[in-house]
Amino acid sequence: TVINIGSINIDHLYQVEHFVRPGETMASNSYQQVLGGKGANQSVALAKAGGMVLHVGAVNRADGHIVAQLQGYGVDTTQINMVDQATGHAIIQLTNEAENAIILYAGANHQLTQAHIDEVLGQAQTGDWVLLQNETNLVGESICAAKRLGLNVAFNPAPMDAELTRSVLSNVDLLIVNEVEAMDLAGVDSIEAATVELPKQFPELAVLMTLGKAGVRYFSSEADESVPAFTVEARDTTAAGDTFIGFCLAELSQGATMKHAMIRACAASAICVTKMGAAPSIPTAQEVTEFLDQ
Ligand code: ADP
Description:
The chain has helices spanning 38-48, 64-72, 114-122, 139-148, 162-168, 179-186, 191-201, 240-253, 258-273, 285-293, and strands at 2-5, 9-16, 30-36, 53-60, 76-83, 88-95, 100-105, 129-132, 152-155, 174-178, 207-210, 216-219, 224-227. By secondary structure, it is of the alpha/beta class. The protein has a single domain (2-7, 37-87, 109-293), classed as Ribokinase (UDP-N-acetylmuramoyl-L-alanine:D-glutamate ligase). A nine-stranded mixed β-sheet has the order 5-4-1-8-9-10-11-12-13, sandwiched between helices. Strands 3-2-6-7 form a four-stranded mixed β-sheet. Strand 11 (207-210) and strand 12 form a beta hairpin. Helix 1 crosses helix 8 (240-253) and helix 6 (179-186) packs across helix 7. The structure holds adenosine-5'-diphosphate (ADP).
């Protein structure tokens, strides 16, 4: 099982002619509400990949439909608390030029409690993975609690908080970062420098670095492996990283080798970038198998 302690958002998408200006009231050409949040996207990817995923999180009492949607994807939602605070949300202005401007409100995602997290982690089995991103409260505390219990800890520090991340790295078994996060964490301004600096600064750490259309690289004190991305026509890269993480951890939690997990995760995220949207663009395990067989 993968226990994903993560954000759940409702994204409000407004198609606009231009970003609203100070003092302006402007009509939107269209409106769409979609499930979002890195936590929720990664849970959907884990479930679609065929993994067992228990999501720990919180939404507003009135938003049971969001929980039902996650459940529909096969996510275990029994540890999503219903609270009084607003569900985390993003207000997204999208222009015809595909530019966006986003207001993010963490809301219920910052209402996790240590007692609840400890209770869930206390029921975990040896060999289970605990996955975290950086869109909830109690991130550092949860990582340390999971490690104390001897569970496998995967951390995707997005959005990056270098100080927090550096302070918990000794309790992380697998760090998953994209290029920007890797450079921020290493305190350098090129990806080449980051791949030199990270192992130097954190010799014990195992790192999965996703490199967009250049694929992915994994390095630890024992290994250094790369898998190229699959060549596809990219339409919308939203949720590519979340798809990668979900498929990779679903495989690792079921005993696959890192190399096998990386290949399936690259295939899954390649399919994801050919489709519009977040959760709906994440493929199923079967689609990934067919993609790899062709
Ligand atoms: P994030 O979306 O978090 O920034 P990346 O851009 O590194 O993450 O993408 C994650 C993974 O998605 C990559 O490792 C790669 O396998 C896949 N991917 C991303 N962009 C493309 C692309 N244009 N073509 C094929 N695969 C891609």
